[in-house]
Amino acid sequence: MWGKQNGMGVRVMTEKRERVRIIYIGRRWWTALACLCLAAVMFYVVNYPAAVGASAAARQLPIYCVQRDQKLVSISFDAAWGNEDTQQLIDILEQYSVKATFFVVGDWVDKYPESVKALHDAGHEVMNHSNTHAHYPQLSADEVVADLNACNDKIEAVTGVRPTLVRLPYGDYDDNSINAVRSIGMEPIQWDVDSLDWKDLSAGEITRRVTSKVQPGSIVLFHNAALHTPEALPGIIQTLLQEGYTFVPISQIILTGDYTIDHTGRQCPAKGDAA
Questions:
Q1: Is the dihedral of CA 168, 169, 175, 177 positive or negative?
Q2: Cα 234 to the chain's mean position, in Å?
Q3: What is the pLDDT of residue 21?
Q4: pLDDT level of residue 69 (50, 70, 90 thresholds)
Q5: Helix (H, G, I), strand (E, B) or coil at 181
Q6: 71 torsion bin: left (phi>0), alpha (psi -120 to 50), beta (else)
Q7: Phi-psi bin for 125: left (phi > 0), alpha (psi -120 to 50), beta?
Q8: Is the pLDDT of residue 206 over 80?
Q9: Which residues on adjacent β-strands are paired with residue 126?
Q10: Using CA atoms, how far apart are residues 130 and 186, in angstroms rounded to an integer?
Q11: CA nearest neighbour of 63 among 216, 272, 253, 270
């Protein structure tokens, strides 16, 4: 009897060990399969970045820069607060026959209508930077449109020209705000070269940052009332002119007609069109 029970016990232990072995092998198999799947995904990302980029491009993006064969560059200024250097900037740009794009907040137009008119009279583009500098992703589509139109109305009342471009406050956006902008025929504009002049960098640092990063089709961001921008601007313009660049307002650097915007925010001509 004891021998029979002992034999049954051995069989039970053997069966348990076999089940444990099967479970262990099964876990190793699933682990190996997961590793193979991860390796396949990494191979696809590394070897087919365009396909990954196409997926990312589904997000609604503003224009950061433009694919251009010619050495064209646009410089832009955001005007939301002070006014102390506006005329100085106008004078510097006039010295080099450079036309720029100024994105102004509606509240700034209320405070400094004479500066808005001076910018327009000097031949610069005066475009929209929102009415009150709100975070657009926190607004509904209707609220975004109302805010844009309020600023457009103020600019048009001073210059006689209704803006077609907008720079979103804080560079902050989501699909909802981008769609709202384009729903009224405006184009949202970002930048690919940031001067960081708002950080009160020295004129030399600002100059090095901008001149080292500009490429054909670049859009450069400056700010009105930044501490060292008027000091840096002449050297930046001179350097880029010597490198063969032509300065144009943003409305002249962006593409019209059929175009695409890639996952980096680069505006590209439709296939077959020239840039």
A1: negative
A2: 26
A3: 52
A4: very high
A5: helix
A6: beta
A7: beta
A8: yes
A9: 102
A10: 12
A11: 253
